[in-house]
Amino acid sequence: MVTILLVEDDPAVRLLVKAKLKDRYRILEACDGETALQVMDTAHADLMIVDICMPRMDGITFVRTIRGQQDNTPVIMLTAMNTFNHKKKGFSSGIDEYLTKPIDCEELEWNIEALLRRARISAEKKIVTGGLELSEEKHSAVLNGEPVDLTETEFKLLFKLLSYPGVVFTRQQLMDDIWGFDSESDYSTIKTYISRLRAKFEGCQDFELIAVRGLGYKAEIRKDEAD
């Protein structure tokens, strides 16, 4: 079972979050950053939910401390403070997501699932969705046991989109990330590659590549595969 470390000084918030998540995850608790570090000495956490304002060691200091120790465990910062500066400070400390109170437990669960999925992809360098398996190390694609011939760029584009299902990437983001900042290619190049991928995976029921008018592209994992 996935283990989540909840670092929060408010007992009522800890009780609420634990009640919502305990059926799916093992929950460890700490009332401040110092206590959380002690918990981490004896237990492993797959993800952390961390408040900002806490006694002894606040959330920002805690996250900077673990990141300084090369700990890349996904961190969701949960706080009542919602200003741009607070968000900037949070992300610069090394957090992965920033959610504000009062807690929307459904949104919290979405973020937990997304971060765990991306952490697993990063660790395994592999995406498995239904009958599709993408291996980043081998730059290979296998669909229902049969290899799919992809160019390096086709693979990078598909791996990027499927690493963040439901997330819309602008055309410029994809150009910069896949083709590079100094590329002379234009946006029509992305459209061409998306068309190639659709053709190569025609009939595949595991995912869909969707054009979002005026913005860019996203990948959607089919609902029966995501459940």
If you had to describe this structure to a student in words, what would you say it looks like?
This protein has 227 residues and is of the alpha/beta class. The longest helix is centred in the middle third of the chain and has 20 residues. Strand 4, helix 4 and strand 5 form a beta-alpha-beta unit. The mean pLDDT is 89. Helix 2 runs parallel beside helix 3 and helix 6 packs across helix 8.
Structure, briefly:
The chain is of the alpha/beta class and 227 residues long. It has helices at 11-21, 33-42, 59-68, 84-93, 105-124, 152-163, 171-179, 187-200, 223-226; strands at residues 3-7, 26-30, 47-51, 75-79, 97-100, 126-129, 132-135, 140-143, 146-148, 169-170, 207-212, 216-221.
SSE layout:
Elements: E1 3-7, H1 11-21, E2 26-30, H2 33-42, E3 47-51, H3 59-68, E4 75-79, H4 84-93, E5 97-100, H5 105-124, E6 126-129, E7 132-135, E8 140-143, E9 146-148, H6 152-163, E10 169-170, H7 171-179, H8 187-200, E11 207-212, E12 216-221, H9 223-226
Parallel strand pairs: 1-2, 1-3, 3-4, 4-5
Antiparallel strand pairs: 6-7, 7-8, 8-9, 10-12, 11-12
Helix pairs in contact: 2-3, 6-8
